[in-house]
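Blinded run. Sample ID left blank on purpose so nobody reads anything into the name before looking at the predicted structure. Input follows.
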Amino acid sequence: AAAMVAQGIGVASVVIFPDVKGLFIATLLTGLGFLSIMQLSMRLARDLSSGAMARTVAVLTSGYASGQLIGPLVSSGSVMLFHSLHPALLLAAAGLALGGLIVGIAIKR
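Blinded prediction complete.
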């Protein structure tokens, strides 16, 4: 949950700091967060799969791939409508932060 919120901050940092500082912050928070999330997701998949590990990994991979397909569409729409990537980046940051909050709530339950 914390890694997802950190990624959201990283994505938003390029809008807040539109220079090398923003890029550096984004690289650190997004990259490290991604590695953490992938490791934790695979561990959780292993714990929950009860023998169907390949299916669980396939579902996780499909979800990730969907995001990789949707992201460029949202970005191009943002550029077409607003002549800027800022709205798409802020939407992505909000999605990551919201996802982190949902995961955090789920963990507490």
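Unblinding after everyone has recorded impressions. The chain has a mean pLDDT of 88.
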